[in-house]
Amino acid sequence: MEDNNKKEVPTDQVNNPLHGVKLADMLTELIEMYGWTELGKHIRINCFNNNPTYKSSLAFLRKTPWAREKVEQLYLRSLKGKIEHITHRLKKN
Predict the structure, then answer these.
(1) Structure confidence by residue, pLDDT tens digits, 9-22
(2) From CA 47, how far away is CA 63, in angstroms rounded?
(3) What contacts 18, CB < 8 A, 6 or more positions away?
(4) Count H helices, E strands: the chain?
(5) 76/74 Cα distance (integer angstroms)
(6) DSSP summary character for residue 9
(7) Region label for 16, one of left (φ > 0), alpha (ψ between -120 and 50) or beta (otherwise)
(8) Are 18 and 73 within 8 A, CB to CB?
(9) Which InterPro entries does this one have (predicted)?
(10) Alpha-carbon distance 31 to 87, whole Å?
(11) Cα dist. 2→5, 9, 58 in Å?
(12) Which has the minimum average pLDDT: 1-5, 22-26, 52-56, 61-65?
């Protein structure tokens, strides 16, 4: 029996490391990793610096492309840093 529910990745998304990653998940991970104060230092936008809440920040990021892009860039840099850290630890062992 074939699985007709499988969705293929569009060709324009094959090399996109953010394909399938939700903005909400990125924001959650960045908040857990940095906290609001540090996140506000990395990305200087009011929704991270003035009485930040998850809901209001997510709403702002969804309607503000330039801010969303900054979050995506920080998320990718953070992932790269995690991978480099793990690789370094594995090489030591």
Answers:
(1) 566 556 677 777 89
(2) 13
(3) 26, 72, 75, 76
(4) 4, 0
(5) 5
(6) P
(7) beta
(8) no
(9) DNA-binding_VF530-like, SAP_dom_sf
(10) 24
(11) 9, 18, 38
(12) 1-5
Q: How far apart are the first and last CA of the chain?
A: 45
Q: How many CB atoms are closer than 10 A to CB 24?
A: 12
- At the topology level, CATH places domain 22-92 in 1.10.720
Residues 68, 23: contact at Cβ < 8 Å?
Answer: yes
Two tokens, residue 62: 């969804």
Lookup: tokens for 69: 């892009």
Is the entire prediction scored with pTM above 0.70?
yes
